Amino acid sequence: MNIGTASEQSRLPVKTIRYYEDIGLVTPLRSENGYRDFSDTDLQTLKFLQRARSLGFSIEECRELLSLYEDGNRASADVKAITQSKITEIDRKIDELRSLKKVLTTLSDACHGDNRPTCPIIDDLAGRSDPKKDSKEQSG
């Protein structure tokens, strides 16, 4: 099948498929005229990559998972280890996002949001003030 059909069936943009080919994740055959000729196996690989990327796996993690996918003698423990590592990374990112939300909420709460030019959010971004301290001083 051609790259357009592979794109439709794998739900990956043509540009992404070309990139995956460039970095060696998929290697379609070439017809005599130089066009890519994707096999059913190539299509399964592209679908695998699409799903893995949608779950947040990096290109290198996808490369590892793909090698395990293609290895009939793989140990499921290896696949689980990669997945658990991804879960740990996601938990760390969630903690970072919660922390960011807390800081942004504090900044937003400290801002009057009116027509005055003073703004604790701008002051904080410029490194000029502490919104927690400012809001305590205003309420005290």
Report a brief summary of the structure.
By secondary structure, the chain is mainly alpha-helical. It has helices at 3-10, 14-22, 40-54, 59-70, 76-110, 120-125, 131-139, and strands at residues 29-30, 36-37.
Task: Spell out the blueprint of helices and strands.
Layout: H1 3-10, H2 14-22, E1 29-30, E2 36-37, H3 40-54, H4 59-70, H5 76-110, H6 120-125, H7 131-139
Antiparallel strand pairs: 1-2
Helix pairs in contact: 3-4, 5-7
Q: What share of the residues does DSSP label as strand, in percent?
A: under 5%
| CATH architecture type of the domain at 1-57 | Orthogonal Bundle
Low-confidence stretches: none
What is the tally of helical segments?
7
- Envelope shape: elongated
The third-level CATH topology of the domain at 1-57 is Multidrug-efflux Transporter Regulator, Chain: A, Domain 2
Q: What value does the Rg take, in angstroms? A: 25 Å
